[in-house]
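Same chain as my last thread, 269 residues:
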Amino acid sequence: MEAFRAKKKFGQNFLKDEFYLNKIIESMSILKKEIEAESNIELDVVEIGPGLGDLSIKILDCFSLIAYEIDSELYLYLKDRFPRLKLYNKDVLSIPFNNNGWLHNKEYILVSNLPYYIATKIILNVLRDKLCRGMIVMTQREVADKFCAKFNDSSFCAISIITESISKSVSKIALVPPNAFSPIPKVESTIFAISKNNNYIDNEFESMIKKAFCSPRKKVIKNLSHIQNLDEILNKLNISNNARAHQINTLQYHQIFNIIKEEKWKEII
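reply #2:
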């Protein structure tokens, strides 16, 4: 496409480096085959923000593709370039969230170079969507660190716990330098993969986790002061009353939540 100017309002930084484009395709193919073999299903492929189609053309060489493009100019270009592409001219965040088919009505895998400014919200929505079985996505490095962090990692946070709770595996694939894009962003990016399990995040659990991390330097017992008898629950699980949110692991948070539900030691989580 000649003389196309990237639009800042859409966070457009197009991945142009063939090495990283091929890395995404290779990783997607492996993840897709693994999930299909384990579950005996056939997954569709969904892409958010195909841009100039550099990734789309490689996906279409192997699979059919459903894509969402917010930019009307690029939508018309892609529609003309890829007749086989099932393309929607939509902002995905304008689509009412449905945890049983937000982006597609069949089981799917997401592949995307996500705009930095909306990446976290999109990934969290896709994680909550029961029809999404996995994803290969690229985000700003710091965002990827949060989704991929394990207990005791410096980036461990509420997002890490939510991701770990509904994932079989989470792994970083590659660190991508700014010069792999056009226009060149000011930050590094990371490609990472998530393979989901069949668990579903309880809204109350998610709310509890977010509150636990709302003031990271405070003790978790202060951040969750609205929960009755939390000190007794922590003692029961051999967790110090002085613990901060990042000093409690994912399993322990689930144990805390289960005790609250079972013994009804709560007001509003």
